[in-house]
């Protein structure tokens, strides 16, 4: 399915944010082709009784083996003089019906077994699944043959045999999904709501499994039709004179050399039918599978697209510094709406400095961090304006090759979840040495020594032995230390840490923060520290920038911002956090929700939630007013120190 | 908490947990021997008084979520007893799960994952009313409206699907579901840790209000000490499946007895706090498959002696006042 054209969505018929299911399917040209062919075959097969066709079973020995395009017989006749066109259409009808019903039967029983096994677990699961394994241990065609041999040849018995043979396929698939779902919290919640196990299984879990069943069905129908044809070909399915595609093929086999059209025609039909079903089935799967739907189908791009107005690239600020981000804007195009995740952010990082970027989820702080090195996925993301200068070099104008060198070299990232950042199948040592040798060619032994040094640098005890550990053998704190070691492997000038301690326990968090703080002083590296926690900011950051709806609303040194916030949002945000040692403090919640970034209001984005809002706040752009070199606020009526929000 | 709830709290124990133990694994293998076993919760005893909020603090893997699941009957203890208002809760969970669900309810950590993505909010909230109460259709409709009002949600949300809600709204729905059948005790398992700070404050305030309105008792589980401090009357600190310290919130936070509690408090970042207490990197949890013979915290403790390594301290080894206990041979502030 490489021919998908999802990256260039056609104009959606409705003005919806996301393209609809049908639109997505029609975008996939192969699937659409499959659907058209399939619909055509089905229509003709369904219309067989009303079409002006001769009786498919009437023999006429005088007319035997007429070639195609002969008079009265468009596709010729077979060895008994029966009209091939008529037999083909009636045969397709039979094949389709048998394939579909076998799929439905297999799906029903297989899913039922899978659901029960996955939900019950334990002994029930073992018994059911070992039974399924036994069915799978036989080659399918042998098993089908055995079943037909016992039941006697005939179309219906072939149908049963094929359905039975395919039950394991469904059962295993569905069991896996059910197993995952039945450990989910909503199932526990249903139990606590008083639902009985059957109610949970069929009312809570089944609706979530249904798409998978449909996907599995759509990809197996073609296979089932082939198997039916196979059995009929062997003479165990449809019995003469009834026509089905397999038996037609079987009859044509004997006269393959004298009258090839008798076997080629049903063969082509089987090909067209199965191919169209498979193409269509793949399309359906791509659409129903939430992961694929979320855009994974589009080819991954190694770098965020940059689409900025060439005339309008801001120059670096006078302060220069290691990293200088100017008016950066990052947007996401989803369907027909544009989400302005980052709307003109200025950041400046001096050597050895730690700048905290604080904000709630959705404020654009992570996208800011990812945009700098072009790590925002394209599509749907793109950098729509601004510039990021690393020691004077415009990163958005650099070549892909250059960016690859800088990533993990001069600029390194530390992410929130170390377990998903580290590769589970490689040892910590292998991953560390890889990070080193990618940027600094050196011998394996030397890289290994360097890796040991790095692990000791991040205070991992027994560094030499830990090198051979797999990520899952380490605790969360140790894993995050490894990630930090990887980030430091090539003497990074800028470390971008995106919530590096959020997933950790408090005692571990304080260890990691102390470590990072020590390292930046030792190595004189600048840190861009993304977090939502003002406590963490206090512990490590020199300066802080508060983000709201994709923009910086306040910036200054940590003490200034925390002790005398000027933007009402900052003040509110600080106030609503409970502080250890002050249990009596009333938590002052911010009512309402942040605006959605595809529809930002004019003026201040916080106006709707602000207690001091004035009519002027809702008109026109509000600029970030810098009162000193470091202190700035994007507010028309900033709070004066002492007054509370 | 208000004065009134303090008074109520001193009355009777609503929930009593005695010497509860939960072991995972340890089954017989097919060819002899046993699978390795983990003691998720061990020798845990505590009681929850009617009308109070008991905070449970601890780091990941300390057994606090296992404790929560035991209390609501989603899991059964390997040994020990849990009594709710004089009734054996474990037996009740086996015999009549719905009877237990009418009295004890649960609020999940991840608000969105705890709502079935393919059900409308109406279906989700109606389930406990249908199965746990004997309200008729009109009664249910009325109760739904009350519930939504109690958690500050607009009635039109009933017809929507979970993915249309923000974390805070979804957690309100989770709370409404827990309230639906009129329980006496609600176990809140990290109810705000998946939420943004501004939303966290909204939910905490809401929980506080609901407690007063409906006369509820809470077990509030969290890893965030400042949140626990702001909501709890009493606090239990857990470490490695055991109780480390138990006492009134004020005393625990002002004068911790157990060095672990002290470490937790000094590690917690707070706005305006520049120096974080930080241990050595070798400070790790003990291996759960081969737990140490003595105090589990000894390896990380600055006060440890031979005694700590030899035998486990009893949960009430150190006592301060009438209600403050710690499992420590060398409690802080008491030489």
UniProtKB/TrEMBL annotation, chain A:
SUPFAM superfamilies: MetI-like, P-loop containing nucleoside triphosphate hydrolases. Keywords: ATP-binding, Cell membrane, Membrane, Nucleotide-binding, Transmembrane, Transmembrane helix, Transport. It comes from the Bacteria. It holds the Pfam family ABC_tran. The chain crosses the membrane at residues 21-48, 94-120, 132-152, 201-226, 255-281. Its main location: membrane. The keyword Electron transport does not apply. It is a peripheral membrane protein; Multi-pass membrane protein. It is found in: Cell inner membrane; Cell membrane. Belongs to the binding-protein-dependent transport system permease family. Belongs to the ABC transporter superfamily. This is Dipeptide/oligopeptide/nickel ABC transporter permease/ATP-binding protein.
UniProtKB/TrEMBL annotation, chain B:
It is found in: Cell inner membrane. Residues 15-265 form the ABC transporter domain. SUPFAM superfamilies: P-loop containing nucleoside triphosphate hydrolases. GO terms for molecular function: ATP binding. It is a peripheral membrane protein. It comes from the Bacteria. The keyword DNA damage does not apply. CDD domains: ABC_NikE_OppD_transporters. Keywords: ATP-binding, Nucleotide-binding, Transport. It holds the Pfam family ABC_tran. PANTHER family: D,D-DIPEPTIDE TRANSPORT ATP-BINDING PROTEIN DDPF-RELATED (PTHR43776:SF7), TRANSPORT ATP-BINDING PROTEIN (PTHR43776). Belongs to the ABC transporter superfamily. This is ATP-binding cassette domain-containing protein.
């Amino acid at each position: 399915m490489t021919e998908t054209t999802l990256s260039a969505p056609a104009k959606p018929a409705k003005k919806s944010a996301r393209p609809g299911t049908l639109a997505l399917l029609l975008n996939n040209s192969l699937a659409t082709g499959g659907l058209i062919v399939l619909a055509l075959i089905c229509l003709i097969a369904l219309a067989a009784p009303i079409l002006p066709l001769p009786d498919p079973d009437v023999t006429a020995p005088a007319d035997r083996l007429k070639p195609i395009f002969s008079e009265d017989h468009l596709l010729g006749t077979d060895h008994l003089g029966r009209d091939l066109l008529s037999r083909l259409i009636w045969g397709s009808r039979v094949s389709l019906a048998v394939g579909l019903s076998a799929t439905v039967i297999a799906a029903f029983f297989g899913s039922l077994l899978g659901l029960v096994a996955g939900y019950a677990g334990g002994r029930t699961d073992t018994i059911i699944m070992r039974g399924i394994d036994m069915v799978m241990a036989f080659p399918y065609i042998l098993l089908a043959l055995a079943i037909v041999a016992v039941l006697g040849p005939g179309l219906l018995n072939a149908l049963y045999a094929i359905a039975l043979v395919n039950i394991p396929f469904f059962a295993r698939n569905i069991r896996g999904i059910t197993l995952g779902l039945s450990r989910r919290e909503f199932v526990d919640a249903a139990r606590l709501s008083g639902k009985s196990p059957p109610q949970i299984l069929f009312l809570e879990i089944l609706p979530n499994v249904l798409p998978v069943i449909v996907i599995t069905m759509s990809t197996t129908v073609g296979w089932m039709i082939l198997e039916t044809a196979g059995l009929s070909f062997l003479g165990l399915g449809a019995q003469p004179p009834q026509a089905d595609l397999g038996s037609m093929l079987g009859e044509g086999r004997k006269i393959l050399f004298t009258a090839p059209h008798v076997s080629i025609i049903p063969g082509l039909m089987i090909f067209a039918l199965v191919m169209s079903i498979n193409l269509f089935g793949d399309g359906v799967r791509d659409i129903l599978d939430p992961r694929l739907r979320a855009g994974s189908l589009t080819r991954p791009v190694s770098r965020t697209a940059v689409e900025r107005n060439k005339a309008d690239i801001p120059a670096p600020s006078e302060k220069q510094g290691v990293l200088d981000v100017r008016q950066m804007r990052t947007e996401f195009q989803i369907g027909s709406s544009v989400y302005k995740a980052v709307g003109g952010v200025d950041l400046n990082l001096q050597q050895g400095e730690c700048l905290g970027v604080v904000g709630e989820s959705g404020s654009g702080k992570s996208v800011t961090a990812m945009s700098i090195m072009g790590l925002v996925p394209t599509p749907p993301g793109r950098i729509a304006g601004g510039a990021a200068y690393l020691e004077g070099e415009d990163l958005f104008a650099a070549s892909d090759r250059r960016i690859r060198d800088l990533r993990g070299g001069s600029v390194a990232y530390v992410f929130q979840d170390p377990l998903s950042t580290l590769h589970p199948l490689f040892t910590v040592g292998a991953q560390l040495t890889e990070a080193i040798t990618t940027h600094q060619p050196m011998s394996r032994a030397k890289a290994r020594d360097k890796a040991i040094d790095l692990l000791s640098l991040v205070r991992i005890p027994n560094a030499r032995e830990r090198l051979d550990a797999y990520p899952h053998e380490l605790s969360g704190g140790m894993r995050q230390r490894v990630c930090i070691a990887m980030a430091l492997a090539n003497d990074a000038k800028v470390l971008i840490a995106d919530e590096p301690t959020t997933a950790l326990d408090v005692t571990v968090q304080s260890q990691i923060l102390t470590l990072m703080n020590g390292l930046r002083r030792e190595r004189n590296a600048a840190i861009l520290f993304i977090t939502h926690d003002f406590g963490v900011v206090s512990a490590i950051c020199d300066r802080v920038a508060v983000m709201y709806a994709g923009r910086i609303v306040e910036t200054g040194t940590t003490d200034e911002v925390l002790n005398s916030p000027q933007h009402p949002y900052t003040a509110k945000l600080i106030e609503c956090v409970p502080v250890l040692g002050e249990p009596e403090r009333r938590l002052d919640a911010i009512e309402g929700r942040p605006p959605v970034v595809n529809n930002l209001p004019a003026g201040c984005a916080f106006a709707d939630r602000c207690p001091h809002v004035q009519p002027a706040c809702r008109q026109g752009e509000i600029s970030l007013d810098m009162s000193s070199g470091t202190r700035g606020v994007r507010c028309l009526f900033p709070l004066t120190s002492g007054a509370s929000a | 908490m208000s004065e009134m709830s303090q008074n109520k709290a001193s009355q009777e124990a609503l929930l009593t947990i005695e010497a509860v133990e939960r072991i995972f694994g340890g089954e017989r293998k097919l060819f002899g021997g046993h699978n390795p076993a983990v003691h998720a919760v061990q020798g845990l005893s505590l009681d929850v008084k009617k009308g109070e909020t008991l905070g449970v603090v601890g780091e990941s893997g300390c057994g606090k979520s296992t404790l929560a699941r035991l209390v609501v009957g989603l899991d059964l203890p390997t040994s020990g007893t849990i009594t709710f208002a004089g009734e054996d809760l474990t037996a009740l969970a086996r015999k009549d799960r719905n009877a237990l669900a009418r009295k004890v309810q649960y609020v999940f950590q991840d608000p969105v994952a705890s709502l079935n993505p393919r059900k409308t909010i109406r279906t989700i909230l109606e389930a406990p009313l249908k199965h746990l109460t004997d309200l008729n259709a009109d009664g249910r409709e009325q109760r739904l409206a009350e519930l939504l009002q109690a958690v500050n949600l607009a009635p039109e949300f009933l017809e929507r699907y979970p993915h249309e809600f923000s974390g805070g709204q979804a957690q309100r729905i989770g709370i409404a579901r827990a309230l639906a059948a009129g329980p006496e005790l609600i176990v809140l398992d990290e109810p705000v840790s998946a939420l943004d700070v501004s939303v966290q404050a909204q939910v905490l305030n809401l929980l506080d209000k609901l407690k007063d309105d409906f006369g509820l008792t809470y077990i509030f589980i969290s890893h965030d000490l400042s949140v626990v401090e702001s909501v709890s009357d009493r606090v239990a600190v857990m470490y490695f499946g055991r109780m480390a310290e138990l006492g009134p919130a004020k005393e625990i936070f002002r004068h911790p007895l157990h060095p672990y509690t002290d470490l937790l408090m000094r590690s917690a970042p707070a706005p305006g706090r520049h120096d974080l207490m930080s241990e050595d990197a070798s400070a790790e949890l003990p291996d759960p498959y081969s737990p140490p013979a003595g105090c589990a915290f000894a390896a990380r403790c600055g006060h440890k002696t031979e005694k700590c390594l030899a035998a486990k301290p009893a949960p009430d080894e150190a006592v301060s006042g009438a209600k403050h206990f710690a499992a420590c041979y060398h409690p802080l502030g008491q030489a």
